[in-house]
Amino acid sequence: MMFNSTPAECLPCGTALAATWDVDLIRRSGELQAEEALAKGVSVILGPTTNMQRSPLGGRGFESFSEDPVLAGCMSAAVISGIQSKGVAATLKHFVCNDQEHERMSQDSLVSERALREIYTLPFQIAQLQAAPWAYMASYNRVNGTHISESYDLLQGIIRDEWGFDGLIMSDWRGTYSTAKALKAGLDLEMPGPTLMRGSLINHALVCGKLTLDDIDISVRRILAFINKVQPLRIPSNASEMTIDTTETSQRLREIVAASIVLLKNENSVLPFRKDKSIAIIGPNAKIAAYSGGGSASLHPYYAVTPFDGISAQAQEEVLHAIGFPPARHDKA
Question: Is residue 161 a part of any domain in this protein?
Answer without folding.
Answer: yes
